[in-house]
Write a structure and sequence with these properties.
Elements (H helix, E strand, L loop, with lengths): L2 H27 L15 H10 L3 H17 L2 H14 L4 H13 L4 H11 L2 H9 L5 H13 L9 H14 L6 E4 L6 H10 L8 H8 L4 E7 L9 E8 L7 H4 L13 E9 L10 H15 L5 E4 L1 E2 L3 H10 L8 H6 L12 H20 L11 H8 L3 E6 L6 H7 L3 E5 L5 H11 L6 H5 L7
Parallel strand pairs: 4-5
Antiparallel strand pairs: 1-2, 2-3, 3-4, 6-8, 7-8
Length: about 450
Amino acid sequence: MSRAGSDQSRPSLLGDLFESLTERGRRFMGWRAGTGRDRLPPPDLTELGARLLSRRGEASGVVIARALLAAFEDAGPEGRLAFLRALADDFGPDPKAVQAALAALQQAPDAAGPMEALHSASEPRRQELLRRLNLAPGGTAALVRMREELLGHLRDQPELRRVDQDFAHLFGSWFNRGFLGLRRIDWNTPASILEKIIRYEAVHAIRNWDDLRNRLQPGDRRCYGFFHPQLTDEPLIFVEVALTRASPDNVAELLDLTRRPIRAEEADTAVFYSISNTQKGLAGVSFGNFLIKQVVEELKAECPNIRTFVTLSPVPGFAAWLEAQRRDEASDLISPEQRLAFAALDQPGWHRDAAGAGSMRAPLLAAAASYFLSARDKAGRVIDPVARFHLGNGARLERLNFLGDVSENGLKQSHGLMVNYLYDLSQIEVNHEGFAERSHVVASDSAKAAKPVPRP
């Protein structure tokens, strides 16, 4: 055939291919078209999964993957749960393949081939199914939503944990730091992303657009987020930063709409006051440690005058822990005198009474010091999840801030307590190793001084 003839036939071949794929897509997606009697029954999700794994052609596989994800989205709660159960029960490792690989390994225990065959055979088939689903347009986002659905069933459906382990394994690779891009989010960022910042803010609720502008537009404010190439308009995590002249002890001064901004050149401190994960389906995939460290590098390059990097963090577990200590008369983490003083916490508006709040300061900070420095959960870990995050990153417990957050949520979760964690760049690695290996909490002298002296 001449080259000209080959070129002339190419559009026809491509047209036939697309027509074939389109017709195949219509068959798989037909249940979505039509209404009433003309509407086809939805496809069987488990059957689609098996068919997707049996395909060798990438193009036809993409069509089936797209159909399966669409059918999962359209299915009701029972249909989606049934598919998740099928992933656990029907798409595990192939027992016959595992047995054959084990037999081959026993025959040649030192050979590389049988070991590799066993590794391949022992991988659950659902991992390959999830990889193929990821090839569909919008597949990554759909799988993140699928795992969010899965996480909601784990307590009542413990057999689904093996499926979640496969999701976590794959997401750990797909959302590796190397695939994430850091972007600054400011007042000129597209509105579609700004709306998500308002919706996803998990620490200090954004009340309106003026509140958002106060956090993004002034020269002494920054916001950064990690984005994935398959989720271009979805920040996976974002951090809000205030550039200040000193470490703040309360969040109200940072969020005050009437404050007077300073020039970035006048600041000597960068305050990380809110970090929000946005995708529930990515729970357990760590972004925050990389985000903070990269933002520190960005700020050091942009504002060399900034010498101090500190957080102003909530203490979400403190109020619940303190309530448990008050009920436990055998607890040695609070004293009888503290227990008596804490009765005032049951009175609404206690924090607004100057005298009452003043008398609460010392016992509450002493309890907070015990909470961070002595209290541990059943696994021997620091109780507070925010503390585990920052201490695990190598930060130091710097200061306990009495009535740092007197919002309704701040009083409910921590009786208003907030904490500064200091990121001393010269000590991060040492602090991290001590916390990771021995659960050692590095704390400033002032934080340790708040802890009460044990009774003889």
